[in-house]
Fold this sequence. Notes:
By secondary structure, the chain is mainly β.
Amino acid sequence: MQEAGFSISFQIIDSQGRQCQITMRDENRDNWKEVLKTRAQVLDAIGAVAPQQVAPPQQAQLTGPRAVPPQQDGEHEDFEADTIFRGVSDRTGEPTFKIRGGRYKQHGVTVWPEVLPALGIDPETLHNGPNPISGLRVRALLGPNKEGQIVAKKIVGRAA
């Protein structure tokens, strides 16, 4: 099986009020905009509600996304984000994103483009360099680095 070029996971509330997670994948990384359109069609078909995506150019306005459910202690760390830094990968030329804030103010924590909509942020509105944000608590997945220290590996969603 070939690894997906990208995936997007999001939480919904179905027509019966249950919270569910849906993951959509595509082999071609460039198809992510089409997958977002398909996402909207799927939500309409099943009568589900999804988070709104709003992101004005200067300050990301956060609306709608539900918080990630609580996890076991030590697996995740929540922190207040104050900046999303957009860069460009030297290897692929694709945009890269890091969220900075709390004790991760200097280096930031990686956030994948497909996670940004779940945070209420449209990646297309972000310019290269720092983009200030406010009112966003994020949840970072923790794991060991090469030295065995537990560090934030990536942003997995919005915190409560």
